[in-house]
Description:
With 431 residues, this protein is an alpha+beta fold. The protein is built from 12 helices and 18 strands. The strands form 4 sheets. Strands 10, 11, 12, 13, 14, 15, 16, 17 and 18 form a 9-stranded mixed sheet that branches. The protein has a 5-stranded mixed sheet with strand order 6-5-9-8-7, covered by helices on one side. Helix 8 (321-334) packs across helix 12 (417-427). The longest helix has 20 residues, at 268-287. Keywords: ATP-binding, Chloroplast, Ligase, Nucleotide-binding, Plastid, Transit peptide.
Amino acid sequence: MAQILAPNMQCQMKLSKSLTNSMIPNSWTSILLKGSQKGSIKCSTKFKVCAALKTEHGTVNRMEQLLNLDVTPFTDKIIAEYIWIGGSGIDLRSKSRTLSRPVEDPSELPKWNYDGSSTGQAPGEDSEVILYPQAIFKDPFRGGNNILVICDAYTPAGEPIPTNKRHKAAEIFSNPKVASEVPWFGIEQEYTLLQPNVQWPLGWPVGAYPGPQGPYYCGVGADKSFGRDISDAHYKACLYAGINISGTNGEVMPGQWEFQVGPSVGIEAGDHIWCARYLLERITEQAGVVLTLDPKPIEGDWNGAGCHTNYSTKTMREDGGFEVIKKAILNLSLRHKEHISAYGEGNERRLTGKHETADIDTFSWGVANRGCSIRVGRDTEKEGKGYMEDRRPASNMDPYVVTGLLAESTLLWEPTLEAEALAAQRLSLNV
Length: 431
Protein backbone atom coordinates (compact mmCIF):
# COMPACT_ATOMS: atom_id res chain seq x y z
CA MET A 1 0.00 0.00 0.00
CA ALA A 2 1.45 3.36 -0.98
CA GLN A 3 1.63 6.07 1.66
CA ILE A 4 2.19 9.81 1.51
CA LEU A 5 3.17 11.88 4.55
CA ALA A 6 1.97 15.46 4.13
CA PRO A 7 3.97 18.01 6.20
CA ASN A 8 2.50 20.47 8.69
CA MET A 9 2.31 23.45 6.33
CA GLN A 10 0.07 24.80 3.65
CA CYS A 11 1.32 23.65 0.28
CA GLN A 12 0.17 22.65 -3.15
CA MET A 13 1.97 20.37 -5.62
CA LYS A 14 1.07 19.90 -9.23
CA LEU A 15 1.77 16.43 -10.64
CA SER A 16 2.09 16.23 -14.36
CA LYS A 17 0.25 13.52 -16.20
CA SER A 18 3.48 11.97 -17.47
CA LEU A 19 5.03 11.96 -14.00
CA THR A 20 1.92 10.38 -12.56
CA ASN A 21 1.79 7.71 -15.21
CA SER A 22 5.50 6.89 -14.89
CA MET A 23 5.59 6.64 -11.10
CA ILE A 24 2.17 5.33 -10.10
CA PRO A 25 0.74 1.96 -11.22
CA ASN A 26 -2.58 1.94 -13.02
CA SER A 27 -4.28 0.42 -10.01
CA TRP A 28 -3.50 3.52 -7.93
CA THR A 29 -4.97 6.95 -8.16
CA SER A 30 -3.74 10.37 -7.09
CA ILE A 31 -4.58 11.52 -3.60
CA LEU A 32 -6.77 14.53 -2.97
CA LEU A 33 -6.43 15.83 0.57
CA LYS A 34 -8.37 18.97 -0.24
CA GLY A 35 -10.06 20.28 -3.34
CA SER A 36 -11.18 18.44 -6.44
CA GLN A 37 -8.70 19.53 -9.10
CA LYS A 38 -7.39 16.43 -10.88
CA GLY A 39 -3.67 15.79 -10.61
CA SER A 40 -3.11 18.05 -7.61
CA ILE A 41 -2.25 17.48 -3.99
CA LYS A 42 -3.38 20.03 -1.46
CA CYS A 43 -1.96 19.60 2.02
CA SER A 44 -3.89 20.51 5.13
CA THR A 45 -2.31 22.18 8.13
CA LYS A 46 -1.78 18.88 9.90
CA PHE A 47 0.00 15.61 9.23
CA LYS A 48 -2.02 13.04 7.35
CA VAL A 49 -0.93 9.58 6.30
CA CYS A 50 -2.94 8.55 3.30
CA ALA A 51 -3.14 5.30 1.40
CA ALA A 52 -5.03 5.54 -1.84
CA LEU A 53 -6.53 2.62 -3.69
CA LYS A 54 -8.82 3.13 -6.65
CA THR A 55 -12.05 1.29 -5.86
CA GLU A 56 -15.69 1.71 -6.75
CA HIS A 57 -15.95 4.00 -3.72
CA GLY A 58 -13.08 6.22 -4.84
CA THR A 59 -10.04 7.21 -2.79
CA VAL A 60 -9.83 5.52 0.61
CA ASN A 61 -8.00 7.21 3.48
CA ARG A 62 -6.86 4.28 5.58
CA MET A 63 -5.65 6.41 8.49
CA GLU A 64 -9.08 8.04 8.82
CA GLN A 65 -10.65 4.57 8.70
CA LEU A 66 -8.54 3.40 11.60
CA LEU A 67 -9.12 6.56 13.64
CA ASN A 68 -12.88 6.14 13.24
CA LEU A 69 -12.83 2.39 13.77
CA ASP A 70 -15.55 1.14 16.12
CA VAL A 71 -14.04 -1.65 18.21
CA THR A 72 -17.12 -2.10 20.42
CA PRO A 73 -18.42 -5.25 18.65
CA PHE A 74 -15.04 -6.96 19.12
CA THR A 75 -13.96 -6.13 22.66
CA ASP A 76 -15.25 -4.87 26.01
CA LYS A 77 -12.03 -2.96 26.54
CA ILE A 78 -12.06 0.84 26.42
CA ILE A 79 -9.50 3.64 26.25
CA ALA A 80 -9.33 6.10 29.13
CA GLU A 81 -7.48 9.38 28.51
CA TYR A 82 -6.11 10.60 31.85
CA ILE A 83 -5.86 14.43 31.85
CA TRP A 84 -4.01 16.61 34.35
CA ILE A 85 -2.60 20.12 34.74
CA GLY A 86 1.14 20.57 34.19
CA GLY A 87 3.79 22.54 36.01
CA SER A 88 2.89 25.98 34.66
CA GLY A 89 -0.56 25.67 36.23
CA ILE A 90 -2.22 26.26 32.86
CA ASP A 91 -0.75 23.62 30.51
CA LEU A 92 -2.71 20.42 30.02
CA ARG A 93 -1.15 16.97 29.78
CA SER A 94 -2.70 13.59 29.02
CA LYS A 95 -1.94 9.97 28.33
CA SER A 96 -3.98 6.87 27.52
CA ARG A 97 -4.51 3.49 29.10
CA THR A 98 -6.65 0.47 28.33
CA LEU A 99 -9.36 -0.58 30.78
CA SER A 100 -10.92 -4.05 30.78
CA ARG A 101 -14.50 -2.76 30.69
CA PRO A 102 -16.60 0.43 30.55
CA VAL A 103 -16.86 2.46 33.76
CA GLU A 104 -19.35 5.03 35.00
CA ASP A 105 -17.78 6.52 38.14
CA PRO A 106 -14.26 7.78 38.93
CA SER A 107 -14.13 5.43 41.94
CA GLU A 108 -14.00 2.52 39.49
CA LEU A 109 -10.80 3.84 37.91
CA PRO A 110 -7.29 2.95 39.04
CA LYS A 111 -4.84 5.60 40.16
CA TRP A 112 -1.94 6.12 37.77
CA ASN A 113 1.38 7.94 37.76
CA TYR A 114 3.57 10.05 35.51
CA ASP A 115 7.06 11.51 35.33
CA GLY A 116 6.77 14.79 37.19
CA SER A 117 10.35 15.77 36.32
CA SER A 118 9.22 16.12 32.69
CA THR A 119 6.34 18.45 33.57
CA GLY A 120 8.14 20.68 36.09
CA GLN A 121 6.34 19.11 39.03
CA ALA A 122 8.93 16.85 40.66
CA PRO A 123 12.73 16.45 40.88
CA GLY A 124 14.43 13.86 38.70
CA GLU A 125 15.61 11.79 41.68
CA ASP A 126 12.02 11.43 42.97
CA SER A 127 9.92 12.03 39.89
CA GLU A 128 6.81 9.89 40.40
CA VAL A 129 3.55 11.84 40.72
CA ILE A 130 0.27 10.02 41.35
CA LEU A 131 -2.92 10.76 39.40
CA TYR A 132 -6.25 10.50 41.24
CA PRO A 133 -9.25 10.22 38.87
CA GLN A 134 -11.90 12.80 39.80
CA ALA A 135 -14.37 13.28 36.93
CA ILE A 136 -15.37 11.32 33.82
CA PHE A 137 -16.51 12.65 30.44
CA LYS A 138 -17.34 10.85 27.20
CA ASP A 139 -14.55 10.98 24.61
CA PRO A 140 -15.77 12.73 21.43
CA PHE A 141 -12.55 11.88 19.57
CA ARG A 142 -12.62 8.11 20.06
CA GLY A 143 -16.37 7.69 20.57
CA GLY A 144 -17.95 4.50 21.86
CA ASN A 145 -17.47 3.80 25.56
CA ASN A 146 -14.10 5.54 25.64
CA ILE A 147 -13.68 8.27 28.24
CA LEU A 148 -11.78 11.38 29.27
CA VAL A 149 -10.71 11.44 32.92
CA ILE A 150 -9.98 14.68 34.77
CA CYS A 151 -7.37 13.96 37.45
CA ASP A 152 -5.53 15.85 40.16
CA ALA A 153 -2.00 15.09 41.28
CA TYR A 154 -0.44 13.90 44.56
CA THR A 155 2.88 12.77 45.94
CA PRO A 156 3.31 9.02 46.60
CA ALA A 157 2.64 9.85 50.27
CA GLY A 158 -0.79 11.21 49.33
CA GLU A 159 -0.09 14.94 49.68
CA PRO A 160 -1.43 17.26 46.95
CA ILE A 161 1.43 18.72 44.90
CA PRO A 162 1.68 22.56 44.75
CA THR A 163 -0.03 22.82 41.34
CA ASN A 164 -3.00 20.75 42.54
CA LYS A 165 -5.51 23.55 43.11
CA ARG A 166 -8.48 21.21 42.91
CA HIS A 167 -7.76 19.68 46.33
CA LYS A 168 -8.25 22.94 48.26
CA ALA A 169 -11.31 23.89 46.20
CA ALA A 170 -12.89 20.51 46.95
CA GLU A 171 -12.31 21.08 50.67
CA ILE A 172 -14.03 24.49 50.46
CA PHE A 173 -17.03 23.12 48.57
CA SER A 174 -17.40 20.19 50.96
CA ASN A 175 -17.67 22.56 53.94
CA PRO A 176 -21.26 22.20 55.24
CA LYS A 177 -21.77 25.97 55.29
CA VAL A 178 -20.79 26.22 51.63
CA ALA A 179 -22.56 23.05 50.50
CA SER A 180 -25.85 24.16 52.07
CA GLU A 181 -25.74 27.34 49.95
CA VAL A 182 -25.49 25.31 46.69
CA PRO A 183 -23.10 27.75 44.95
CA TRP A 184 -23.75 28.16 41.23
CA PHE A 185 -21.11 29.28 38.75
CA GLY A 186 -21.41 30.35 35.13
CA ILE A 187 -17.98 30.83 33.59
CA GLU A 188 -17.37 32.76 30.36
CA GLN A 189 -14.12 31.48 28.85
CA GLU A 190 -12.61 33.82 26.25
CA TYR A 191 -9.75 32.61 24.05
CA THR A 192 -7.77 33.73 21.01
CA LEU A 193 -6.89 31.71 17.90
CA LEU A 194 -3.46 32.32 16.38
CA GLN A 195 -1.97 31.50 13.01
CA PRO A 196 0.76 28.85 13.39
CA ASN A 197 4.41 29.89 13.22
CA VAL A 198 3.71 33.63 13.10
CA GLN A 199 1.74 33.76 16.41
CA TRP A 200 -0.63 36.37 14.98
CA PRO A 201 -4.44 36.24 15.36
CA LEU A 202 -6.38 34.09 12.92
CA GLY A 203 -7.79 36.15 10.04
CA TRP A 204 -5.40 39.06 10.56
CA PRO A 205 -3.02 40.04 7.74
CA VAL A 206 0.45 38.84 8.76
CA GLY A 207 2.45 41.70 10.25
CA ALA A 208 -0.49 44.09 9.88
CA TYR A 209 -3.81 44.92 11.51
CA PRO A 210 -7.43 44.48 10.44
CA GLY A 211 -9.99 47.26 10.66
CA PRO A 212 -10.79 48.58 14.15
CA GLN A 213 -13.06 46.77 16.58
CA GLY A 214 -16.77 47.10 16.08
CA PRO A 215 -18.04 44.69 13.41
CA TYR A 216 -16.46 41.52 14.84
CA TYR A 217 -18.42 40.94 18.06
CA CYS A 218 -20.98 38.21 17.19
CA GLY A 219 -20.20 39.12 13.58
CA VAL A 220 -21.10 37.12 10.48
CA GLY A 221 -19.13 36.99 7.25
CA ALA A 222 -15.72 36.01 5.92
CA ASP A 223 -14.32 39.47 6.71
CA LYS A 224 -15.62 39.49 10.30
CA SER A 225 -15.64 35.94 11.66
CA PHE A 226 -12.43 33.91 11.82
CA GLY A 227 -12.47 30.40 13.29
CA ARG A 228 -16.20 29.66 13.44
CA ASP A 229 -15.63 26.00 12.45
CA ILE A 230 -13.35 25.57 15.45
CA SER A 231 -15.90 27.17 17.77
CA ASP A 232 -18.73 25.00 16.41
CA ALA A 233 -16.67 21.81 16.51
CA HIS A 234 -15.77 22.58 20.12
CA TYR A 235 -19.41 23.31 20.98
CA LYS A 236 -20.56 19.90 19.70
CA ALA A 237 -17.61 18.09 21.28
CA CYS A 238 -18.53 19.59 24.66
CA LEU A 239 -22.16 18.53 24.31
CA TYR A 240 -21.09 15.02 23.36
CA ALA A 241 -18.67 14.82 26.30
CA GLY A 242 -21.35 15.84 28.80
CA ILE A 243 -19.88 19.25 29.59
CA ASN A 244 -22.49 21.74 30.74
CA ILE A 245 -21.75 24.22 27.93
CA SER A 246 -24.47 26.85 27.63
CA GLY A 247 -23.40 28.92 24.63
CA THR A 248 -20.70 30.46 22.48
CA ASN A 249 -20.07 33.64 20.49
CA GLY A 250 -17.49 35.58 18.54
CA GLU A 251 -15.75 38.22 20.66
CA VAL A 252 -14.88 41.91 20.25
CA MET A 253 -11.36 41.37 18.93
CA PRO A 254 -11.26 39.48 15.60
CA GLY A 255 -9.94 35.96 16.00
CA GLN A 256 -11.19 35.84 19.58
CA TRP A 257 -14.07 33.63 20.79
CA GLU A 258 -15.92 32.77 23.96
CA PHE A 259 -17.80 29.79 25.32
CA GLN A 260 -19.87 29.64 28.49
CA VAL A 261 -20.14 26.76 30.94
CA GLY A 262 -22.81 26.57 33.60
CA PRO A 263 -24.66 26.95 35.77
CA SER A 264 -22.51 24.38 37.53
CA VAL A 265 -22.49 23.56 41.22
CA GLY A 266 -19.32 23.76 43.29
CA ILE A 267 -16.29 21.75 42.18
CA GLU A 268 -18.11 20.68 39.01
CA ALA A 269 -17.51 24.12 37.50
CA GLY A 270 -13.74 23.68 37.55
CA ASP A 271 -13.90 20.11 36.23
CA HIS A 272 -16.07 21.16 33.30
CA ILE A 273 -13.96 24.18 32.35
CA TRP A 274 -10.73 22.18 32.42
CA CYS A 275 -12.24 19.42 30.28
CA ALA A 276 -13.65 22.02 27.85
CA ARG A 277 -10.18 23.58 27.60
CA TYR A 278 -8.71 20.15 26.86
CA LEU A 279 -11.21 19.60 24.04
CA LEU A 280 -10.39 23.02 22.61
CA GLU A 281 -6.66 22.27 22.70
CA ARG A 282 -7.22 19.00 20.85
CA ILE A 283 -9.48 20.56 18.23
CA THR A 284 -7.09 23.43 17.50
CA GLU A 285 -4.28 20.87 17.36
CA GLN A 286 -6.14 19.00 14.63
CA ALA A 287 -6.95 22.22 12.79
CA GLY A 288 -3.33 23.38 12.84
CA VAL A 289 -4.28 26.54 14.73
CA VAL A 290 -2.64 27.76 17.94
CA LEU A 291 -4.78 28.41 21.02
CA THR A 292 -3.76 31.07 23.54
CA LEU A 293 -5.36 32.04 26.84
CA ASP A 294 -3.12 35.09 27.20
CA PRO A 295 -5.21 37.88 28.80
CA LYS A 296 -3.83 40.53 26.41
CA PRO A 297 -2.53 38.77 23.29
CA ILE A 298 -2.32 42.00 21.24
CA GLU A 299 -1.23 45.27 22.80
CA GLY A 300 -2.96 48.51 21.88
CA ASP A 301 -6.59 49.36 21.22
CA TRP A 302 -7.80 45.76 21.31
CA ASN A 303 -9.88 43.97 23.92
CA GLY A 304 -8.13 41.50 26.18
CA ALA A 305 -9.39 38.04 27.06
CA GLY A 306 -11.08 37.35 30.37
CA CYS A 307 -12.89 34.56 32.14
CA HIS A 308 -15.83 36.38 33.71
CA THR A 309 -17.30 34.31 36.52
CA ASN A 310 -20.99 34.57 37.36
CA TYR A 311 -21.78 33.51 40.91
CA SER A 312 -24.78 33.04 43.16
CA THR A 313 -25.78 31.20 46.32
CA LYS A 314 -29.10 29.79 47.42
CA THR A 315 -29.90 32.85 49.54
CA MET A 316 -28.88 35.21 46.70
CA ARG A 317 -31.40 33.46 44.44
CA GLU A 318 -34.22 33.76 46.97
CA ASP A 319 -36.37 36.79 47.84
CA GLY A 320 -34.24 39.46 49.46
CA GLY A 321 -31.13 38.07 47.78
CA PHE A 322 -29.93 41.45 46.51
CA GLU A 323 -28.99 42.42 50.06
CA VAL A 324 -27.01 39.18 50.36
CA ILE A 325 -25.27 40.00 47.08
CA LYS A 326 -24.30 43.44 48.40
CA LYS A 327 -22.86 41.85 51.55
CA ALA A 328 -20.84 39.49 49.35
CA ILE A 329 -19.58 42.45 47.28
CA LEU A 330 -18.46 44.14 50.49
CA ASN A 331 -16.43 41.06 51.45
CA LEU A 332 -14.90 40.90 47.97
CA SER A 333 -13.87 44.54 48.18
CA LEU A 334 -11.94 43.84 51.38
CA ARG A 335 -10.13 40.89 49.78
CA HIS A 336 -9.51 42.53 46.41
CA LYS A 337 -5.72 42.06 46.52
CA GLU A 338 -6.01 38.39 47.44
CA HIS A 339 -8.36 37.77 44.53
CA ILE A 340 -6.32 39.74 41.99
CA SER A 341 -3.16 37.85 42.92
CA ALA A 342 -4.96 34.57 42.15
CA TYR A 343 -6.90 35.61 39.06
CA GLY A 344 -4.34 34.84 36.34
CA GLU A 345 -0.86 35.72 35.09
CA GLY A 346 -0.48 38.91 33.07
CA ASN A 347 -3.84 40.25 34.18
CA GLU A 348 -2.31 43.70 34.80
CA ARG A 349 -1.97 44.08 31.02
CA ARG A 350 -5.72 43.54 30.66
CA LEU A 351 -7.24 45.30 33.70
CA THR A 352 -6.43 48.87 32.69
CA GLY A 353 -9.80 50.57 33.11
CA LYS A 354 -10.27 50.46 29.33
CA HIS A 355 -11.83 47.94 26.95
CA GLU A 356 -14.65 46.96 29.33
CA THR A 357 -12.43 46.40 32.37
CA ALA A 358 -11.89 48.01 35.76
CA ASP A 359 -8.48 49.24 36.86
CA ILE A 360 -6.57 46.43 38.56
CA ASP A 361 -5.80 48.50 41.67
CA THR A 362 -9.33 49.79 42.30
CA PHE A 363 -12.32 47.72 43.37
CA SER A 364 -15.71 48.87 42.07
CA TRP A 365 -19.18 47.54 41.46
CA GLY A 366 -22.21 48.68 39.51
CA VAL A 367 -25.47 47.68 37.92
CA ALA A 368 -25.07 46.84 34.21
CA ASN A 369 -21.61 48.44 34.25
CA ARG A 370 -19.01 46.38 32.39
CA GLY A 371 -16.27 48.76 33.49
CA CYS A 372 -16.56 47.60 37.11
CA SER A 373 -14.88 44.81 39.05
CA ILE A 374 -18.29 43.34 39.91
CA ARG A 375 -21.32 43.76 37.67
CA VAL A 376 -24.89 43.20 38.82
CA GLY A 377 -27.51 42.68 36.12
CA ARG A 378 -30.57 44.86 35.66
CA ASP A 379 -32.84 41.87 36.25
CA THR A 380 -31.16 41.13 39.57
CA GLU A 381 -31.69 44.71 40.72
CA LYS A 382 -35.30 44.72 39.51
CA GLU A 383 -36.27 41.37 41.03
CA GLY A 384 -34.25 41.87 44.22
CA LYS A 385 -32.47 38.54 43.79
CA GLY A 386 -30.19 36.74 41.36
CA TYR A 387 -26.45 36.67 40.78
CA MET A 388 -23.36 38.82 40.32
CA GLU A 389 -20.55 38.74 37.78
CA ASP A 390 -16.89 38.93 38.78
CA ARG A 391 -15.23 40.50 35.74
CA ARG A 392 -11.69 40.43 37.11
CA PRO A 393 -10.50 36.88 36.30
CA ALA A 394 -8.17 36.59 33.31
CA SER A 395 -8.67 34.06 30.52
CA ASN A 396 -5.80 31.94 31.91
CA MET A 397 -7.18 31.77 35.45
CA ASP A 398 -7.51 28.43 37.24
CA PRO A 399 -11.27 27.82 37.69
CA TYR A 400 -10.63 25.76 40.82
CA VAL A 401 -8.88 28.75 42.41
CA VAL A 402 -11.43 31.36 41.34
CA THR A 403 -14.57 29.43 42.27
CA GLY A 404 -13.09 28.26 45.56
CA LEU A 405 -11.96 31.77 46.46
CA LEU A 406 -15.37 33.29 45.66
CA ALA A 407 -17.09 30.75 47.93
CA GLU A 408 -14.52 31.22 50.68
CA SER A 409 -14.63 35.04 50.64
CA THR A 410 -18.42 35.28 50.59
CA LEU A 411 -19.45 32.34 52.77
CA LEU A 412 -16.60 31.48 55.14
CA TRP A 413 -14.57 34.67 55.64
CA GLU A 414 -15.88 37.33 58.04
CA PRO A 415 -14.46 40.89 58.11
CA THR A 416 -14.17 42.93 61.30
CA LEU A 417 -17.11 45.21 62.03
CA GLU A 418 -14.92 48.28 61.58
CA ALA A 419 -13.62 47.18 58.19
CA GLU A 420 -17.14 46.24 57.11
CA ALA A 421 -18.52 49.66 58.04
CA LEU A 422 -15.74 51.53 56.23
CA ALA A 423 -16.11 49.39 53.11
CA ALA A 424 -19.88 49.84 53.08
CA GLN A 425 -19.49 53.58 53.26
CA ARG A 426 -16.88 53.66 50.51
CA LEU A 427 -18.96 51.48 48.19
CA SER A 428 -22.31 53.07 49.11
CA LEU A 429 -23.65 49.73 50.25
CA ASN A 430 -26.38 49.71 52.87
CA VAL A 431 -25.91 46.32 54.48
